């Protein structure tokens, strides 16, 4: 099942963080580059007639379109005109095709839990385009509009699909690396309103809880896992500490998403790594394992060393171990984090067990092997 690491894929993943770095003199950040200019009725790739605008991201914009050959509505992601962004998009299309080819045959008879790439082409010589099936709304946008968490039954159904989709992806050797609510879509955007069972007021409930994983731009084969991955608030302990990682980073991120489904807010609103570790300890009511501290203090690859207070980590090895040292503002934010056991309602014990971890299926376990 394994395949050799793609050197071009590894280089592309490292360039994905380009926008976070200080650009060279006169060079634009990716977020500053202009988006593709479009108009209603415009035909892309000689086949897809533009119907409207769905949204913009750092690397490109998504347009609603209709396939003139099939009459089916699609979403066309148009990448900004930059060589390195085109390469990233081409790599994403390649990975999606590889995943489709490697997917177990028994799974092809039903709706996939990942977005389907229908077509790709180059528009106006420098805008790489990817054509996807039309989807509904992201979990991020749904929760933002809802203003609170969803019904427990809905959260459980979405969690089941999310974990099943990850299991399928990991089975064929791939790691998503950038799971977050923005990258999980409801297949259908319709909803109705009902009284919220945990809070005062009403809540939106999807007519259909079917979800779909999107944005495979950072997806790698497990043999190519290296460097920093993911969005800060969804990073696992090993990523925060700069340790080697594998597909279990996706499972931690899934736990963060499931938390958001229930509460309607992030588990960790963090600004830097030491603060993140302190919040993890508060939420899980457990200490950062000493073996992880020891590995972080002696990184295998100095180029991948994380931004950590090494002196504060070193004190963790003392007897008794010291509390993680943080700036005053960060310490206040970390202290404000309540343990999971105090946040989840008592009648939802099985949901707490899923988030907090049981003997067999912990999502929020420090040790990757236990996730």
TrEMBL record:
SUPFAM superfamilies: Protein kinase-like (PK-like) (SSF56112). GO terms for cellular component: nucleus. Residues 18-33 have a biased composition (Basic and acidic residues). ATP binds at residue 77. Residues 1-33 are annotated as: Disordered. Residues 1-17 have a biased composition (Basic residues). Keywords: ATP-binding, Kinase, Nucleotide-binding, Serine/threonine-protein kinase, Transferase. It comes from the Eukaryota. It holds the Pfam family Pkinase. Belongs to the protein kinase superfamily. PANTHER family: SERINE/THREONINE-PROTEIN KINASE DOA-RELATED, SERINE_THREONINE-PROTEIN KINASE DOA. This is Protein kinase domain-containing protein.
């Amino acid at each position: 099942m394994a395949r050799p690491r793609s050197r071009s894929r590894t280089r592309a993943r490292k360039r994905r963080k380009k926008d976070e770095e200080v650009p060279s003199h006169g060079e634009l950040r990716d977020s500053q580059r202009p988006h593709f200019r479009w108009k209603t009725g415009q035909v892309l790739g000689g086949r897809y007639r533009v119907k409207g605008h769905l949204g913009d991201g750092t690397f490109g914009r998504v347009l609603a379109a209709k396939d003139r050959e099939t009459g089916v509505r699609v979403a066309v992601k148009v990448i900004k005109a930059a060589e390195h962004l085109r390469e990233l998009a081409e790599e994403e299309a390649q990975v999606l095709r590889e995943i489709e080819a490697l997917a177990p045959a028994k799974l092809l008879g039903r709706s996939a839990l990942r977005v389907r790439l229908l077509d790709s082409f180059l528009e106006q010589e420098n805008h790489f385009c990817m054509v996807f099936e039309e989807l509904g709304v992201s979990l991020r946008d749904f929760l933002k509009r809802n203003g609170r968490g969803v019904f427990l039954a809905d959260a459980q159904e979405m969690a089941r699909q999310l974990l099943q989709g990850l299991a399928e992806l990991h089975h064929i050797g791939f790691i998503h690396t950038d799971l977050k609510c923005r990258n999980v879509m409801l297949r259908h955007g319709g909803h109705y309103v009902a009284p919220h069972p945990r809070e005062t007021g009403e809540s939106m409930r999807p007519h259909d809880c079917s979800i779909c994983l999107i944005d495979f731009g950072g997806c790698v084969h497990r043999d190519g896992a290296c460097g920093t991955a993911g969005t800060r608030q969804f990073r696992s302990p090993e990523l925060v500490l700069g340790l080697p990682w594998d597909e279990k980073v996706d499972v931690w991120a899934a736990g963060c998403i499931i938390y958001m489904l229930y509460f309607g807010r992030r588990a960790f609103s963090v600004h830097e790594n030491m603060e993140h570790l302190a919040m993890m300890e508060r939420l899980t009511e457990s200490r950062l394992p000493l073996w992880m501290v020891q590995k972080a203090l002696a990184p295998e690859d100095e180029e991948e060393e994380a931004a950590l207070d090494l002196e504060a980590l070193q004190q963790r090895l003392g007897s008794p171990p010291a509390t993680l040292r943080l700036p005053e503002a960060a310490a206040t934010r970390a202290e404000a984090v309540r343990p999971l056991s105090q946040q989840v309602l008592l009648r939802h014990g099985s949901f707490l067990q899923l988030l907090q971890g049981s003997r067999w299926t912990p999502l929020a376990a420090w040790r990757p092997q236990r996730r």
